[in-house]
Amino acid sequence: MIKKILSIVLILILFEKTNAVENKILFKIDNQIITSLDIANEYTYLSLINSNLRKLPKDKSFLISKKSIIREKIKESELKKKLDLDKINDNILERIMKTFYLKLKIENKEEFKKLLEKNQLEYDFVKNKIKIESAWNQLIYNKYNSKVK
Questions:
Q1: What is the distance between the terminal CA atoms of the chain, rounded to a whole angstrom?
Q2: Angle of helix 58-82 relative to helix 123-144, nearest 10 degrees?
Q3: Is residue 17 helix, strand or coil?
Q4: What pLDDT is recorded for position 88?
Q5: Which of 98, 64, 80 is nearest to 135 (CA)?
Q6: How would DSSP label each residue in 24-62?
Q7: pLDDT more than 90, % of the chain
Q8: Is the pTM of this model over 0.85?
Q9: I need a labelling partner for 139 at 20 to 30 A (CA). Which of 49, 57, 85, 129 fits?
C-alpha cells in the first residue's frame, strides 16, 4: 500500500508542470504531518483569497502560511475528537462554498473550479478547508454562545 502511494506521488512529481518544490516534512501535529508542499498550497490558497499576501516579502508570507496551516491542523485535530467531519451535510457545505466564491466575485462553481485549477489547487482541498473552518466556528459558537451577554 505504501509503495503504491509513493509510486503515485513520484509519478505526479515527475509529470508536474510547475517549478519543482522540494517536499520536506516540517511539523507533526498529533498524527498529521505538515510538509513544505502543504505550506506552499496554503500560501496559494491564502493569496487567492487575499491578494495582498503576494505583496509581502517571501519570508513573511511563508510565516503567515505556516502559522495558518498549523492552526488549521490543530483545529482539525480537535474537531475530530468531538465530531465526525465526514458527516457534515454536503448541501450546507456547498452553500458555504457558494458564498465563498461569490465573495471572490466569481459567479458560478465551474468558474471557481477553473480558477482553482489555474492556481493548481483542488476543489476538494478548498472544500475541506472551508469545512474545517465552518465546523470550528460552529463548535466555538455552541460552546460560548450562552456566555455572551
A1: 53
A2: 60
A3: coil
A4: 84
A5: 80
A6: -EEEEETTEEEEHHHHHHHHHHHHHH-GGGGGS-HHHHH
A7: 64
A8: no
A9: 49
Residue whose C-alpha is closest to residue 130's, from 81, 82, 79, 94: 94
Rounded CA-CA distance 63/40 in Å is: 11
- Cα–Cα nearest to 69, from 45, 86, 93, 97: 45
> What pLDDT sits at residue 17?
46
Sign of CA dihedral 66, 133, 86, 82: positive
Task: Average the pLDDT over 113-135 and give the result.
Answer: 95
Exposure of 27 by Cβ count < 10 A (0-12 exposed, 13-18 middle, 19+ buried)? middle
Torsion of CA 11, 15, 18, 22, to 10 degrees: 30
Cα 43 to Cα 6, 48, 52, 53, 79, distances in angstroms: 24, 8, 12, 8, 23
